[in-house]
């Protein structure tokens, strides 16, 4: 009996490669890799692909030397039919000859790092632990079975610092894209800003700040979860 599963790097964590890049990892069978890569190319602002492995390749060069992607990360989410069924600490138990790993830049971590470095965000805030992410009413361009509403991350920015925020994060445009929306969340389909799709809502007085939304690389995860409902991603004998 075959079960449909796929390994995806932990949704609320990121791996730091050489202290330079935060990266999310998604693994799909080679038969679906071209479609997924096309989805990333069509939606570069939310799915900035850094690297694609060859089928069966477990190394992460040139991102990390002498490493095995199956054991490099703290944990992995395993999906079946588009739903998480377990969390594992390594992927060595799964056949790998036909698997392709995609390395996607983690947008929210780079934005957070830039905002903290420039003094726009206060690192002493206890609510800075997990950035909130929301699904929007903006649809991504589809590629085969891969498609999803755009997922965005949000940071509350003091009104007086809005112009500066846009300026400093624009320096990262080639990696993370530009601001998606500033202000009223309902305009992009977010009904309740206190209830994020992933992460924790900021515990701040929103009267003194303005919500600013950037594209999130978790859009790629949402697209993969949706695709898992339509075709077999990875077979394991049971």
What does this 3D model show about the protein?
With 238 residues, the protein is α+β, with helices and mostly antiparallel strands. It folds into two domains: 100 residues, PSTPO5379-like (3-Layer(aba) Sandwich); 112 residues, PSTPO5379-like domain (PSTPO5379-like fold), CATH 3.30.2040. The chain has six helices and 13 strands. The strands form four sheets. The protein has a four-stranded antiparallel beta sheet. The longest helix has 13 residues. The radius of gyration is 18 Å and the shape is globular. It starts with a strand and ends with a strand. The N terminus and C terminus are likely disordered.
What is the tally of helical segments?
A: 6
Instruction: Tell me about the largest β-sheet.
Output: 4 strands, antiparallel
Question: Can you name the CATH architecture of the largest domain?
Answer: 2-Layer Sandwich
Distance between the termini: 6 Å
Give the ordered list of helices and strands: EEEEHEHEEEHEEHHEEHE
Approximate strand percentage? 25-35%
CATH homologous superfamily caption of the largest domain: PSTPO5379-like domain
How many β strands by DSSP? 13
**What's the alpha carbon Rg, rounded to whole Å?**
18 Å
Number of domains: 2
Family: Belongs to the D-glutamate cyclase family.
Pfam families: D-Glu_cyclase
GO molecular function: D-glutamate cyclase activity
GO biological process, one term: glutamate metabolic process
